[in-house]
Amino acid sequence: MSYYLGIDTSNYTTSLALYNCETKEIISKKKLLPVKPGEKGIRQSDAVFHHTVQLPELITELFDGNKYNINSIGVSVKPCNEDKSYMPCFLAGVSVAVSLSEAMNVPLYKYSHQDGHIMAALYSADKMDLISDTFLAFHISGGTSQALLVEPTEKYYKTTVVSDSLDLKAGQAVDRVGVSLGLSFPCGPELENLALKSKKQFNKIRVFRRDGKFSLSGVENKCKKMLDDGEKPEDISLYCLNYICSAIDDTVNELIKKYGNLPIVFSGGVMSNSIIRDKLQIKYNSYFAEPYYSSDNACGIAILASICDKRK
Q1: Which of 149, 232, 261, 301 suits a disulfide with 74, CB 3.0-4.6 Å?
Q2: Taking Cα atoms as reference points, which of 75, 76, 69 lies closest to residue 104?
Q3: Residue 108 and residue 92: Cα distance in Å, rounded?
Q4: Residue 166 burial (CB < 10 Å; 0-12/13-18/19+)?
Q5: What is the pLDDT of residues 224-265, one digit of tens each?
Q6: Rg, Å, the chain Cα set
């Protein structure tokens, strides 16, 4: 059987995946980068170091003594497809990918981390056929909060940013609010569990917008005031998630008016949140990745390598 290896070294997670193009099965291994208690992120120099340590460990786990027929390798080399997109953490994955490609004498394909998120979401939602169509994709995570117009190409697809956050990214907002509540970084799962305990109802939240873009800095300030005023942690958590959901909801409405009722694919770690997902899924012609495929992973990168290998 033929397999395709995917490698992704994001600012949060070391990820590896093997994709079997015949059975459509994926073997995946990933490990979060360690963050000290109370901190809201990780320095790039530390991220590169931890990836360098974790990659050999995960490769050993992934292959587990088995010999796989690797046809090609895919690797994420930058956060997104914009010209100046760059983060040093991806260099760790590139180094390993280039070395393996040369040693195995197999092709190497380079993608953005964002490309991988979109492809993983399509796979998880069983909508890989959308790769031949035009659709809207939301990538909502700690490093990115963007809406993209995705259009098919001869290789796979191209993305055009059609909306973006003016300031904070959604994942940053979640983590900053979470850390202020004493939660451990990354705070997404704990914040969601807290929010699910809230009995409070929040009316439609107004989110500042300018030129089709949205602002998320207001949620951090509002949640800080709520905390200072002695409001319950679960209510603060729910407000934070509802605020992010309102920002996405407003953006979807604007884009539907502009581009029509295109399919919408949601990806990124924040979109694994059940509160946000349930509200949006009811309203729109949308598809969500399962939580494992929403958070950082190398699965989409491995699948893209198989697609490009067949179309070369």
Answers
A1: 301
A2: 69
A3: 15
A4: middle
A5: 999 999 999 999 999 999 999 999 999 999 999 999 999 999
A6: 19
